[in-house]
Amino acid sequence: MNPIDPKKDASNEDYGHVFHNEEEVLANAKQTIATNDMPVADLRAAYTDLTENYEKLLYDIKLLTRLSDKQQNKIQQQNEELRHSKHNLEDIVVARTKDLNKAYSDVLNINKELDSFVYRASHDIRGPLATFLGLCNLAKMEVGEAKALEYLEMLHSTAKRMDDILNRLLAINKMKNVAVQFEKIEIKQIISKIVQEAQQKESFRSVKISVNAFDVLDVVSDLNTMEIMLMQMLENAVDSLSSTPQDRTQTEFIHLYLIRQEQYVCLFVKYTGIVIPPEHWEKVFEIFHRTHQRSDMTGLRLYTAKLAADKINSKIRIVESNPVQTIFEVLIPLIQEVVL
Question: I want to staple 306 with a disulfide (CB 3.0 to 4.6 A). Which of 139, 209, 240, 285 is the partner?
Answer without folding.
Answer: 285
